[in-house]
Design a protein that fits this description.
By secondary structure, the protein is an alpha/beta fold. It contains ten helices and eleven strands. The chain has a six-stranded parallel sheet, sandwiched between helices. The chain starts with a helix and ends with a helix. The relative contact order is 0.18.
């Protein structure tokens, strides 16, 4: 057993070395990340069992249903109860994955960060060109007059956040289930991926579409997958690294 663990550690060390060489030699890297990038900042994946929501009726419903457009419209109060408790982490800080990506961008190596996360930690770490496929908790707007509101307004509000100007409902500018991705963000993401030399995908199982379908737009031969578990695209990757992305990127960025 000890010998087997040693082999795993040796493999990870070798994979990290190869990834570092790829990054050192490239000036056109694009990163695409999922929930695993944020879990190292103590933001849990809402799809976990801990994310389930208990209604007053005693019926348990899935996070996917709660985070749908239909649920938001029909059960707005319950949506915000879940949203504030399970989706917003105001004290979260960037981890080594966020910091490494910001460092590579500052060095001129990384051209874009494409993320499925809505926490804004990439920007907090210093990344500039961040394409948020699912929006951001830091952006909110009145559904009636479209006045913008920050995260503090939503967090401080009681029950359903109401616009101070017109009395409309203030909705987080995040993409809910049944809603379409922002076409402009999607087009920019596709363009960046199709032109990338090295395409690194991390912290995602690549099972949620349409976001997972972005991998198919990569035309190069340096697809890197960094994740704790296997993905449907492992056989197409030039390098797969099985591990915690924050720990892996910390080693690579040293």
């Amino acid at each position: 057993m000890i010998k087997e663990k040693g082999k795993i550690q040796d493999n990870l060390k070798e994979q990290t070395k190869v990834l570092k060489e790829m990054i050192d030699q490239s000036h056109n890297i694009v990163f695409f990340g999922g929930a695993g990038v944020s879990t190292a900042s103590n933001i849990p994946d809402f799809r976990s069992s801990n994310g389930l929501f208990q209604k007053k009726s005693g019926m348990t419903i899935s996070p996917e249903e709660i985070l749908s457009h239909t649920f938001f419209i029909n059960h707005t109060q319950e949506f915000f109860n879940f949203y504030r408790s399970k989706m917003v982490y105001v004290d979260a800080k960037p981890n080594d994955a966020h910091l490494a990506l910001a460092k590579w961008e500052q060095e001129g190596k990384l051209k874009a960060v494409i993320t499925q996360n809505i926490d804004g930690l990439h920007q907090l770490a210093g990344s500039i060109n961040v394409l948020e496929l699912h929006g951001s908790i830091h952006k909110n707007y009145c559904m009636r007059c479209h006045q913008p509101f920050d995260l503090d307004f939503v967090v401080a509000s009681q029950g359903i956040p109401i616009c101070s100007s017109c009395g409309g409902i203030v909705k987080p500018d995040v993409v809910l289930y049944e809603e379409s991705l922002d076409s402009a963000i999607l087009e920019k993401s596709i363009s960046a991926i199709s032109q990338a030399d090295v395409f690194i995908v991390g912290g995602t199982s690549l099972t949620v579409y349409p976001a997972a379908g972005l991998v198919s737009y990569y035309r190069g031969r340096k697809l890197v997958l960094v994740n704790k578990t296997a993905t449907p695209f492992d056989t197409k990757a030039g390098l797969t690294v099985c591990g915690n992305i924050a720990e892996v990127f910390r080693q690579v960025a040293l």
